[in-house]
Amino acid sequence: MSLRVQSLTRDEHLAFVTARSSASHMQVPSWGDVKPDWRAESLGWFDDRTGALVGAGLVLLRPLPKLRKYLAYLPEGPLIDWYAPDLADRWLAPMLAALKARGAFSVKMGPPVAVRRWSADAVKAAVADPDAHRLRDTEPTSYEPRAFEVADRLRLAGWRRTEAGGADGFAAGQPRYVFQVPFAGRTLEEIHAGLNQQWRRNIRKAEQAGVKVVLGGAEDLPAFHALYTETAERDRFVPRPLSYFRRMWSALNAEHPDRMRLYLAHHDGEVLAAATMLSVGEHVWYSYGASTGRRREVRASNAVQWRMMTDAHERGAAVYDLRGITDTLDESDQLLGLLRFKVGTGGQAVEYLGEWDFPLNKLLHRALALYMAHR
Hints:
By secondary structure, the chain is α+β, with helices and mostly antiparallel strands. Helices cover 36% and strands 27% of the residues. A hairpin with a 6-residue loop joins strand 3 (53-63) and strand 4.
């Protein structure tokens, strides 16, 4: 069975995603509307014999300055049969040909293939081990042998793994390591029991202090953003502008009315914490979080998380995804505190295959790499 790759309509793309139990929120058609600096296109893989649509992907095309050449990026995608033995020739080769015809000089993609998993106890043991410096160097709780076969096929076909970069410009990149709480087959009581003692205590403190978590609307995004910019200053990262979250809200919820939610934790008339939640099929993500340094003793951040986890379970989520974590176990790393916070949910650290590049024009690809290294 040979495959051809061609453009999809948004409706065709969305129908394909909707028929799957799980797909990244970065692989729905509306995600292209969130990224106006990139030109978005939906691609489909069709069975030449039957005409059936068997794969889909959202590709973001970023123009190279002064040239009609593009970096093609498929974040956490495409949605294809990654375990096919003829992955490179049958699935990826026609995609590369289609993107080259569109002027792409380099292709970056993020296979949604999990490699290894570490239970919360395994992560805590790794953090406590003075001889452990990176999570990847510690013994996993489980691993997927087929994922290593996928990596081998990609290398043999000329793909090269790259480390995730920043979010602006050409430095596209998504985390290779994430933290997830499995929900499938578990009651809410079992999920609550899986939280560590500190988390359960903090949830009780928030309830006793009278913290109220409510669903917000577009009109509440400025309140969220005020906390978010305070968080960025405290944790030393560059915040996204309010316009980004407004665009995200309107684009995602226009596609599906419950694609993006906003939660706000109120206490004594003040919003102390807020977070956004994204949903596609049975996969739910804690997307962006924010909190103030005031009245931390009422544990508003824990209250927001537990409300989101409760709602995610009620809507039938199989996975609650807390997104990226650091791979380093160094006590001096400021992100280690965030890892500890997420480990308290009792979930598991998950390593994905990471992002892979294929240079269609080696000269331009090399020039871009040099530019990014010295900017």
